[in-house]
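Our consortium's second objective concerns turning raw sequence data into structural hypotheses that experimental partners can test. To show how far this objective has progressed, the report includes one record in full. It was chosen at random from the queue rather than selected for favorable results. The single chain below, 145 residues long, was entered without modification.
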Amino acid sequence: MADRSATPEEFDGSGADRPRQLVDLVAYSLSVLVVLFVVLGAVSVALGGGLVGVKRGLFVVGMLLFGLAALKLRPTRLDKRDEARLPADRGRETPFQSRVQRVIPSAYRLDHDDRLSDALKLFVASLLVLAVSYVMETVFGIAVS
């Protein structure tokens, strides 16, 4: 299915959707971070790793998400558009995205076709996850021992 996420060419020039797209992007990225932090926190506590385990897990998962998002953001060749291995957007809302939409106030919600691509949101989320891992080590002193 074709990628129906918003592109710069589709904007009417007014930028009316951009603040709402930013809200969607921030909500998605923070949701990914919170879910990862809770899951990694539970696993790390169960294995006796504490916050160091969470920091390590955030770094590893952040790097994996970064790589996946980079692959999804890669443009496909014009003659291979129908054979995209990792489409940027499958054209339908994922269960995770529908849960994120419930968190966003109704005035800021967008239709699926008006949102930024899933690949871009995943890319920003990966940067946020890596940034939190970095801050945990440098600011809060949670170092790998």
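The partners drew two points from this record. Residues 18-47 form the longest helix (30 residues). The two ends are 47 Å apart (CA to CA). Both points have been shared with the crystallography group to help prioritize constructs.
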